[in-house]
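Quick one, tokens below:
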């Protein structure tokens, strides 16, 4: 039997592939810290929180993580907690595998002709740059993976509990509500593991940076809520009402 003949299988592969790709990309671009305000074309907004001077300097990974959680809610709606858990553990495994392969790539000897030192003509040290960009610290890797898994499992649980209360109505409540709860936990777990345990940050700094990151995630989660409805509309039309209703019913059990 051709496994791709069924629409629900093709849909799961499409959603799952996009989910895993976004999770992987977010991990590797997360090494870059960017200024949200300057990216939007205005001067940084400076404020003080728990004695720390803050502005919206964020890891580039936050650009994609809200999309990952939106995808989580859509997958949860049609394939239930088992589908989300399967993809979450698979994504964590593939991310771990990717980091191992990157570690190996960093430590293999570069070719003689590959620029390996700063030269008079300004050519950068490619090996050093490669290691700096891709060679994230062990604590950061562990923190991001643990935070990802905990966030996903919390998202699933909150989503399903809200769905029991709302039924098929109020998609925005269960989708946005579960995302806001899981993103809050995700924001602090990664900082506690990666920087409190791994870099001896003070609790004041952990809390301040966590709240700073969560403000961004909160706003983005609200802004992206209409995408949930767009996704539902597209999927319902693709599957047809009968199959769509069947998958939603099975996902709730």
């Amino acid at each position: 039997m051709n496994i791709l003949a069924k629409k629900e299988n093709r849909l799961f592969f499409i959603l799952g592939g996009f989910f895993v790709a976004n999770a992987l990309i977010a991990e590797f671009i997360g090494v870059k810290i960017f200024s949200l305000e300057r990216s939007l074309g205005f001067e940084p907004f400076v404020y003080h929180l728990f004695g720390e001077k803050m502005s919206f300097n964020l890891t580039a990974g936050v650009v994609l993580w809200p999309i990952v959680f939106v995808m989580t809610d859509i997958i949860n709606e049609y394939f239930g907690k088992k589908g989300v858990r399967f993809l979450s553990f698979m994504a964590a495994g593939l991310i771990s595998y990717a980091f191992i392969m990157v570690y190996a790539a960093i430590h293999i000897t570069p070719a003689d002709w590959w620029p390996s030192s700063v030269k008079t003509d300004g050519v950068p040290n490619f090996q050093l740059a490669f290691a700096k960009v891709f060679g994230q610290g062990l604590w950061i890797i562990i923190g991001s993976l643990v935070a990802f898994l905990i966030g996903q499992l919390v998202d699933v649980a909150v989503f399903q509990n809200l769905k029991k209360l709302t039924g098929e109505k109020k998609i925005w409540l269960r989708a946005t509500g579960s995302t806001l709860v899981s993103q809050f936990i995700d924001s602090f777990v990664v900082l506690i593991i990666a920087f409190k345990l791994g870099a001896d940050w003070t609790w004041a700094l952990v809390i301040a940076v966590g709240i700073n990151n969560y403000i961004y995630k909160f706003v983005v989660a609200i802004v992206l809520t209409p995408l949930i409805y767009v996704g539902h509309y597209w999927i319902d039309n693709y599957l047809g009402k009968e199959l769509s209703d069947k998958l939603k019913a099975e996902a709730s059990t």
